[in-house]
Each structure stands twice: as structure tokens, then as C-alpha cells.
Amino acid sequence: MVAGDGFDRYRPSPVGEMLRDRPPMVRELPLFDPDLAPAEPGPLFVDWLVQAFEAGVLDPQVMTLSTVDADGVPDARALVLRDVDAAEGTWVFAGEADSPKGRQLALSPMAALSVYWPPLGRQVRVRGAVEAAPPGVSADEFRGRSPGAKVSSLVGRQSEPLGSLAAYDLAADEAQLLLETDPELVAAGHTVYTLRAAEVEFWQGDPGRRHVRLRYTRTGPGIGRAAWTSTLLWP
Ligand SMILES: Cc1cc2nc3c(=O)[nH]c(=O)nc-3n(C[C@H](O)[C@H](O)[C@H](O)COP(=O)(O)O)c2cc1C
Q1: Residue 201 pairs with which residues in a beta bridge?
Q2: What residues are in contact with ligand 1 under a 6 Å CB criterion?
Q3: What averages of pLDDT result for each successive group of 10 residues across the chain (235 residues)?
Q4: Ligand 1 center from residue 221 Cα (angstroms)
Q5: Minimum CA distance residue for ligand 1 atom 5
């Protein structure tokens, strides 16, 4: 046992020791000068995203989407960021309406998106209200997907218990056939979601723990620089 085993001491397990010996971000990291940051978070996010691609971060467009279920219990999963509207301050992702995340968003349309880009020691956290796009927009986005992505969406039943992998293969073959018969077919539940940021925090790690944190808060109804204030945060 580690902490809380009846002794007033913290005794890491071998796993805890392994982790203690491997602190994160022990490397040279970029400097972030908040005085040079733009007045709104969208352009800064796009800037950091481009730098993450350039730095060779694997899949920097994959973020963690956090939602809450009907009991207020948090849930989280990785998903692909589809787009960012830098002026509007909106982040776009897609998923199945009839999945746990889709049901959670229907019930409680607020979410957080977060990402950590290790080579740069950078984290970004985005929070706000989520809106499902009109069906026509989601269908249009679906038509532009790869055949494999279409098939897996058409199979549906995401996150339900699966009896065997063979059962999935069978369902995928059927979906493939349907798609070949009607290439315009759209998965009924496929949905594009837009998160309108109320808060965006940029976190630049520092090996000496002098992390720089800049939080943007949406203060006005408009778009662009007039709608945001920014605040430095203690690390
Ligand atoms: C790298 C990566 C990218 C993913 N992209 C998506 C995505 O864009 N949309 C999606 O619905 N699920 C995506 N997933 C799968 C989700 O993490 C999750 O397993 C699935 O959406 C079911 O989540 P739920 O049960 O909370 O609804 C991705 C997973 C990984 C690891």
C-alpha cells in the first residue's frame, strides 16, 4: 500500500518510486511572454497548435473532452479537434449523439477540452457551452469523412457492450455494403458540436516550475478582441 495505510508516512509503491524518478518536463522548453500574447485566445491557440505540429508532437489535434453525466459525475475521453474559429472563440469536434458523451451533452451542454503537448511543455484548457450543429451541417461533415470513419459511425451502438470482435466485423461488413449501395448515406447520430469558449487557459511549463499561465475570460457578447480579458495566474 502507498499513502493512508495506517502509518503517518507516505511510502510510495515501486510504481510510485518509478514515477517519482521520472518527473515531467525536465528539458528545455519554450518561453512564453504573456505581454506579447494576443488580446483573444483563438489566434494564440492556433499559433500553439501550428507550433505543436512543427515540433513533431504526435496527434496534437487530439484533445480530451470532459463532460458530466446525469449524476454530475465527470467523464472524459480523447477526440479529434475538427476546427477552430479563432475570431469567434469556438472549438469544433464531432461524435455520435447516441453515445455516452452525446447523451451527456444533450443533458448538460457544457464541456471542457484540454490538451498537453509534451515536447513544448504546453497545456491548453478550454471551457464553455456546447451546441450541436443543425443536422444538415453534421451530414455535410460526415460526407467528407474517410470510408473507415463512415463505416464505424454507421455501425453505431458506440460504448455499448460488444459480445465479440466478430460481431463488430459482421456489423461493419453490413455497414460497408450499405455505404457501397448508397455512397451518400449518413449515420443518423453523427453530430458536429461547437464549444463556445467562456474561458481558455494557456499554460507554459518551465523546468524550474516558474510556469506561465494566462487565462482568457469572455466578458462581452461580441466576437474578437473586444469580448475578452486576460489574467495571469499563479503557477
Ligand atoms: C486519438 C483518438 C481520437 C478519437 N477521436 C474521436 C472523435 O473525433 N470522435 C469520437 O466520437 N470519438 C473519438 N475517439 C474515441 C473516444 O475517445 C471514445 O472512445 C468514444 O467517443 C466513446 O466515448 P463515450 O463513451 O464517452 O461517448 C477517439 C479516441 C482516440 C484515442
Answers
A1: 125, 215
A2: 59, 62, 75, 77-80, 94-96, 99-101, 158-159
A3: 68 95 95 97 98 98 98 98 97 97 98 98 98 97 95 95 97 97 95 98 96 97 89 98
A4: 31
A5: 79
Say if 155 falls within a structural domain. Answer: no
Asked, for residue 118, whether it belongs to a domain, the answer is: yes
Compute, in angstroms, the gap from residue 44 CA to the centroid of ligand 1: 25
- Measure the CA–CA gap between 208 and 21, rounded to whole angstroms: 16
Q: Which three cell numbers stand for residue 15?
A: 510504481
DSSP code, position 184 = T
Q: Is residue 225 part of a domain?
A: yes
Stretch (H or E) spanning 94: strand 90-96
CATH code of 81's domain: 2.30.110.10
By most ligand atoms within 8 Å of CB, the mutation choice from 67, 80, 92, 96 for ligand 1 is: 80
User: Is the residue at 170 inside a domain?
Assistant: no
**What does pTM read for this prediction?**
0.95
